[in-house]
Amino acid sequence: MNVNAASMLRVLGLLLSLLLPASAADTAADAGADVDEKTSAGKKRIQEARTAETMFKDVTWVKGPASGQMRSQAEIKVPSGFRYADGEGTRTVLKRFGNLTSGAEVGLLAPQSMDWFVVFEFDATGYVKDDDKDKLDAAKMLKSIKEGTERANEVRKERGLPTMKIIGWDQEPHYDSETHNLEWALRGESEGGQQVVNYNTRLLGRRGVMEAQLVVEPDRLEKTLPEFKKLLEGYEFRSGERYAEYRQGDKLAAYGLAALVTGGAVAIAAKTGLLTAAILFFKKFFKLVIVAIVGVCAWVKKLFTGRSSQDHHQLR
Questions:
Q1: How many folded domains does the chain comprise?
Q2: What is the pTM of this model?
Q3: Is residue 240 in a domain?
């Protein structure tokens, strides 16, 4: 089908909208309070919301304003115009995009249009000490990530899968001592020359780390980041789970902040030369960002053509 991905998605949206019982007014409300259904941009947002509603109709959504619960660890405010799914719903969405899941997913937050979203995963690794907060060496960490990626690429070549090249930092690792949040952004390039950006935030808690991964197309990252950061202001660990509530005898993580950036325990294992660890390292860093570029397109293509094998390999 000689139609570009964006056109295919619009066509799919038009077809699916005919099946929806919701009125334009209802959909406009779902798309966000600031959406003017009379403008072209407003109509597009409404259509995107309708498409998302149908694609994920079997997911139980919490629509804002509300509170999204993340098991017993945390919660986040869901603003008006946004939707939230728990861990089970998150895995349903990711699988529908042809993506890998880990079982550690605890939530997904997105605008009603689903044109970008945030996936939350909790890693019960234990309390991560921030003793190295003033010693984060961006150049050294980037070198480690590149080495891990090269090891993973060797395995991917053997399996006939496309490789990935790390270009560099879009944002060097930064740790906030007050919020205990660690964030960074990496830019990579696929074998076909397509660039992807992986924006990562780690929220440190008493018993582990909440991973917040922003899934967005690279050319929309700069525009989306302020809204993403605003959403995280509504996130908080539950009482008894906060970083400052650490008590002597609590489980301690085997690594610090730098290793969180370079892949945590998986990166440490990759250093030993274990190829299995290296491929896991690769998947952990790029399992979500690739979906941001080709996930929806692959899903739509499968609907139109029934072809899935090639797309599956792209997303692994």
A1: 1
A2: 0.69
A3: no
